[in-house]
From TrEMBL:
Family: Belongs to the cytidine and deoxycytidylate deaminase family. ADAT3 subfamily.
Record keywords: tRNA processing
Name of the protein described by the UniProt record: CMP/dCMP-type deaminase domain-containing protein
UniProt keyword Transport present: no
Amino acid sequence: MEWELTEVPGNPTSSLQGTVDVVAANIEPKLASALIRQLSQACPLENLRHVKRVRRRTECGKSELSIILCLSAGTETCSKQLPVDVQKIVDTYQLNSFTAKVPMCSAISKEDWEEQCKLWPTSYHPAHDLGIARGFREEELASIFNCMKITIQLSKVGKGNAAIIVDPSSTQIIAKSLSMEVSCINPWGWTKQRTMGQKPLPSEISFMWHPLRHAALVAIENAAERDRMMFPSTSLIKPDSNSNLENYNDNEPAKRLKTDTIVKFEHQDKEQSADESCCSDLSETTRPYLCTGFDIYLVWEPCAMCAMALVHHRFKRVFYAFPNPVHGALGGVYRLHGEKSLNHHYNVFRVSVPEAYLNGLNDGLKEC
C-alpha cells in the first residue's frame, strides 16, 4: 500500500432518505432459529443485508419478537402478496403477518444507525474506504505525507499519540507534542495506578498521567507558548464594539487577532536600544490569532474534547492516520466537524500509511 489521502466528509448523505415495506410476523422465541434458517433459503433479503431479520422490542413490559418474512409486493393485504414458499412457512407455524418499514440503505454514521434502529434493527460498520481527496498538487501531497511521517516517528518515541501543528503557507512546523498514551482512545488511562515498586518520573507527573494532556491539547499549548516567546509584549490591533481598530497590550486578557496588515509601533525616541529595535522588527510580522489557518497532524483520530479544541483554535485542516473506533469524533464514531451549529469548521483528511511505517504503533495501542 502506498501513501494515500482521503477526505472524511462532515455531512455525509443521510441514509434515512428512504424506507422499504416488508412483511413481518410476531413469533415465539423458541421458533426463531428454525424460521431464520427456513426464510433465508425461501426468501433471502439480498438487497437488505444491512437489516437484521429479527427484531426484539419491549412493549408494556412484555418482550416481543418479530421476523421479516419477505419484501412487500404492494398495497394489497399481506396474505395475498407472499411468495409460495413463504406462504407455506406462514401456514405451517400459523403466523399472523403485518407490514413494517425498514431502512433502504445501510447507515453511514452512528447517528443514522441510531435513527434506523427506531424503525428496525440494522447493522452498522463505520466507513473507512472514503473517496480519494481531489484538488491537491503533487508537491502539496508530498508535504502532507512528509508531515505525517514526522508525526508517526514522533509517536514511536512514547508509543502513544503525537501531534504537530504546521503553517501550510510556509510548511513551517509551529509546535509538536507527544502523549505517552493514546489518550483519545483510552481517556481514563491516567487513572491507572502504578505498582508500589515504581517511582513516577517527573515527566509522568506533569504529562503522562494528566487527564487533559492529550496530544492535540499539548500541541495547542506549545503553539501558544511559542507566540508568547516570539511576541513578548507587542501591541496588536483588534476591532472594538463599533468595528473600529484599537490597540491593546498582549498582557490584557483579550484574544489575539490575526491581521493581514503589518502592525507598527509609533516612532519612539531615535536613540533606541538594540533590544528595542529587535522587538520592533519582530512586531512588524503578522502574529497568529490562536491557530487560524494552521494544519494539525495526528497519528490517531482525536476524541470529542480534542476535536472541539481544534474548533475553538480555528484550525484549517486536520489530518490523522488511524481512526479511533472507541471515541473518534471526526469519522470513527461521530462527525463533529459537520455539526452546523458550530461557529467554525475545518476539513478533515485521513492519511493511509504504508505497512513499513506501522512498526511500533500497534504495540502502543495494545498497551492502552
